[in-house]
Every structure is written in structure tokens, then in C-alpha cells.
Amino acid sequence: MLPRHRRFLGICCVLIIVGLASFLILKSFQDNLLYYLTPSDVIAGKAPEDREFRIGGLVVVGSFYREEGSLTSQFTLTDGAATVNVNYRGILPDLFREGQGIIVRGLFNKSRVFIASEVLAKHDENYMPPEIHALSTPTE
Amino acid sequence: MDLKQIYKYGSPPQYFKLSLKSENWFLIPGIFLMIIGCVGGLFIAPPDYQMGDAFRIIYFHVPSAFLSMSAYAYMAGAALIGIVWRSNVAFSVAKSIAPFGASFTFLALVTGMLWGKPMWGTVWVWDARLTSEFILLLLFLGYILLHLSIKEQKKADLAASVLALTGVINLPIIHYSVVWWNTLHQASTISKLSSSSITGDMLWPLLVMIFGYGFFFWGVICRVVASEILKREKRSKWVEQYIKELR
Asked: Which among A66, A68, B49, B238 is most buried, taking Cβ atoms within 10 Å?
């Protein structure tokens, strides 16, 4: 075996070991790496009780309500299967609108309303000019 | 063509000449493409239906992010060749790429943060995509610092290259982070070949910019590698000869 073959094999071994190690680490931290839970996860009881966590979902069309002159808004998040009612006091991001993907961080209160301390808008990977969008969603 | 011809460029003077010769072949098309891409992206492409003109930062964010990852792949490839073939030229290439890879990673992060503030409502979150891209920046910086901290050239090359190679594992993690985990960061727009996530009139400046960044990057790297080789070979005859010819 030439020295350079030995060095090449050595590098391969190191890479395989590092790859395996990363795989195991990432697998065991799978839950922590999830940035948010879906409403279905929450209903299934996967949400922590004692600390803040995040829920991601679409704002149900027609569910948004905010009193005139108030910063407190209410809306419902859905993933198609389950829904969560959210209450938030503060300024909403630009992309916040009904039908849009949103991530909220906070805790449930006693009446199972999610009190959010932070609202983030999730943008999808689709980009299009307004005319194309009007064509693709004629009902709006 | 005989494949062994490629060994010729393992010799520092040959590679030095090659990089000086090819510099403009990368740099000029790179700058040209970047100008076209900027005009196309900033003025010709239509605004987005939701984000308006703010989406235009994609024309800088995506090419920077793309280049930051490919720069790392090039660096690791050069490090591999350096270790296996004990090639000083390959080590020079790896060392030259590191600061530019770090710069483009930094650009990708900053442009993302500028966009994230108005759109997401936050500058930074520790989701899988942002965190793994940040680790990429740390890997580049780690390579640079490790190389700086070891005085002896050969040892520094070897140690830094091993670091670069082990960090390769981060590349698939960055790429698939948006698929494997729920992230705030959106999924890839252009790597999906099947469905169109972006319309053609918005897409072409993006592709032009990606190629422009790539060519520009290699143009700069050619020049930096040439100077790195000169520095390493400063005591050799051919450098002496070269300097004499310059005068």
C-alpha cells in the first residue's frame, strides 16, 4: 500500500466516524432541533407544560380579531388537523395575515388559550409577481 | 489526454503561472455577470406579491449562501488533495479560500438578518438552518485561527486541513436542515427541479448572480493563491528569476 493510499484511507475512516457521531448526536437531539411543534403535536400532548415552546401553523381565515385601538390580537392556528387559539399583545410582523404561516412562542393559560410572547411570520419558498398570484388564486 | 498531465500543476511555478493566466478569465465574466444580475434583480424583475421590493435581497442572499457552502467544499477538496498527495500547492489553495469563504458566509448571515427583521419579525433565531450556517462561519474562522496559531508551515497545513475535512459533515446538514426539521427558514426555492417555486422573470437574475459570484470568487482566489505560492517559495530560484524579470 502506497503512503498516499494509506493517508486517503485514514481520511475516509475519520470522515465515517465523524459522520456516524454527528448522526447519533443529531438523532438524540431530534426533539430539541425542532424549532416549533404543530397544533396536532400539541393536542397529542407533546408540548412541555412548564416552559415556553413554539407552535407553527396557518392563521385560520376569518379568525383574526383585534379591538380598535388595542394591541391585543386573537387568532386561531391550524395545521389542517388540529387548531389552537392564540392571544398576543404586541406588534405583528409585516407578513402576518390570515392564511399565512406563523410561529408563536409562549404558554397555555388555564382555559387552554395560548398566550404568545412572540409572533414570527414564516415565509414559504414561493416567489411570484402580483399578477401571477392573482391568476393562481382567483377566489381572493 | 493523459490524466497524468494534471500532476504538472502540482509544481508551484506551473500552478503560479496558471493562476495568473486564468485570473481574468474568471474575474471579468464574474463582474460582467454580477452587473447583469444586479440590474436584472433590482430593476427588471417584478416585485413579489407579498413582500414587494423587500424580496430583492434574495439576489444577494442566495448567491452568498450558495458560495459559502461551495467555497467550503472547494477548501475541503484542496485539503484532501493536500494531505493525500502532500501537495504544497493544494494547501496554498485551501488556505487562500478560507478568508473568502468566511466573508461570503458572513454576507449570507447578514443579508438574511436584514431580511428577517421586517419579514419574520426577528433578526436571529436558533433554528437548524441558521445555526448550521453559523457553524460554517465558525469552521472557516477555526481553520484560519488554527493555521495562524501553528508556526511551522507543514504542521499548520496538516492540522487545519484535518479540521476542514471533519467539518465537511456540516454541508449536508445545512442543505437538508430545512427538510429534516421544522425551521423558521423557508425550504429551498431553486433546488426543486419539479415544481416552480419562483417565476422565470424573477429566477433568471438569481441564476446569473449565482454564476457571477462563483466566477468572481475564483478570479479573486487565483490572485490570492498566486501570492500565497510566492510567499511560500520566496527562497526558491524560480521566484528570484520571476522577480528579476519583473524589473
From this structure: B49
For the question of whether the overall pTM of this predicted structure is more than 0.95, the answer is no
Same-domain status, A11 and A66 = no
Extents of the domains making up chain B: 24-190+197-246
The answer to whether B200 contacts chain A (CB < 8 Å) is no
Q: Quick check: is A42 in a domain?
A: yes
The beta-carbon neighbor of B127 closest among A35, A126, A131 is A35
Is the CB of A132 less than 8 angstroms away from the CB of B188? no
Q: Which of A22, A35, A38 sits opposite B184 (nearest CB)?
A: A35
**Any idea which of A43-52, A54-63, B153-162, B200-209 has the lowest mean pLDDT?**
A43-52
Among B102, B35, B91, B32, which Cα is nearest to B64's?
B102
Distance of CA A24 to the CA centre of its chain: 24
Domain contains A109: yes
User: What domain range includes position A104?
Assistant: 35-121
Instruction: Select from B182, B198, B199, B206 the residue whose CB has the most chain A CBs within 10 Å, as the one to mutate to test that interface.
Output: B182
Q: In this structure, are A6 and A49 located in the same domain? A: no
Q: What is the 3-state secondary structure (H, E, C) of B123-190?
A: CCCCCHHHHHHHHHHHHHHHHHHHHHHCCCHHHHHHHHHHHHHHHHHHHHHHHHHHHHCCCCCCCCCC
**What is the pLDDT of chain B when averaged over all its residues?**
90
Looking at the structure, do residues A19 and A81 belong to the same domain, yes or no? no
Kindly state whether residues A24 and A72 are assigned to the same domain: no
Instruction: Give how far A132 is from chain B: nearest CA, Å.
Output: 8
Q: How far apart are alpha carbons B102 and A38 in whole angstroms? A: 35
CB within 8 Å: B187 and A125: yes
* DSSP of B36-50: HHHHIIIIISPPBTT
Q: Do residues A97 and A50 both lie within one domain?
A: yes
Across the interface, do B121 and A92 touch by the CB < 8 Å criterion?
Answer: yes
The CA distance from B204 to the nearest CA of chain A, in Å, is 13
Q: Are residues A42 and A27 in the same domain?
A: no
With a cut of 0.90, is the ipTM above it?
Answer: no
| Cα distances (Å, whole numbers) of residue A116 to A104, B47, B76, B125, B159 | 6, 32, 44, 16, 48
